[in-house]
Design goal:
The chain is an all-alpha fold. The chain has helices at residues 18-35, 45-62, 65-86, 99-118, 121-137, 141-153, 158-174, 178-189, 195-211, 215-228, 235-248. It starts with 17 loop residues before the first helix and ends with a helix. Mean pLDDT is 81; it is low at 1-16 and 38-54.
Length: 249
């Protein structure tokens, strides 16, 4: 049933503006990635607690009741993942998850995917991206690719939309669908507004070509980056990568 504004409750997902949602999305992904060990050398347990408190508090204050329920489900799964990943004996000597921990994370990834399937808007996007990350952490590439595709299909704006497109592109490239991978990120690289996402997208194209062994195309993509973004902070690094690629080619 629509409210006085004509919107259905389940559509009222965006009480935050795009910039604020980007901050929340990045912070929440930071919590999940930290739990999985990606940032274990960058943040400590106190940082995790403070970050989680900020994120969950922000989401609670900004969502309708319908969306709060979705985010409560997501937060509950995240807490379980944090507990699994931080438990003694969760990782093997090579740094990967043990069979038991991997199975437990797979269960939570499936739960997150189920939440994503029943959600809308940015809540759905965040759940799809998180499910993809969880599946990726246990090397379930097919399931991760499925979730990246689900996130990308939502065509959300800002960082969450870019994360979905980039993740989907990586999954497509991994399955040797080079054309599909480029198509996933090209619109972000071509965006007239430019900005850091456009820079990252152009470099993602270069990476896709380089990883596929198409060195000349990769170099051309990096050269295009230097032409379009002459003042980029990444310019010096990109120039060095071009020289390295030419020397090794």
């Amino acid at each position: 049933m629509a409210d006085d504004t004509g919107r259905r409750p389940e559509e009222d997902d965006d009480l935050l503006d795009d910039e604020e949602e980007d901050v929340v999305f990045k912070a929440r992904m930071g919590v999940v990635n930290l739990a999985l060990g990606y940032w274990k050398h960058a943040l400590g347990a106190a940082g995790l607690v403070l970050l989680a408190a900020f994120v969950f508090g922000t989401m609670e204050n900004a969502r309708t009741d319908a969306q709060k329920e979705i985010h409560a489900q997501i937060a509950g799964i995240e807490r379980k993942v944090q507990k699994i990943a931080s438990a003694d004996g969760a990782t093997d000597p090579l740094g990967g998850f043990t069979a038991a921990a991997g199975a437990a994370i797979a269960e939570q990834a499936a739960a997150m995917e189920a939440v994503a399937s029943g959600a809308v808007g940015t809540g759905a996007g965040y759940a799809w991206v998180t499910a993809a990350d969880l599946y990726g952490a246990i090397d379930d590439d097919d399931a991760a690719a499925r979730c990246w595709a689900g996130a990308h299909a939502l065509a959300l704006p800002g960082s969450i939309g870019w994360a979905a497109a980039n993740g989907h592109a990586s999954a497509l490239a991994k399955s040797d669908d080079l054309e599909g991978a480029i198509e996933a990120v090209q619109p972000y690289a071509d965006a007239e507004s430019g900005g850091i996402i456009a820079e990252e997208a152009q470099l993602a194209i270069a990476r896709i070509y380089m990883d596929a062994g198409r060195t000349e195309d990769g170099i051309k993509a990096m050269e295009a980056f230097l032409v379009r973004f002459p003042g980029s902070a990444m310019g010096t690094q990109v120039s060095a990568e071009i020289e390295s690629a030419r020397a090794s080619g």
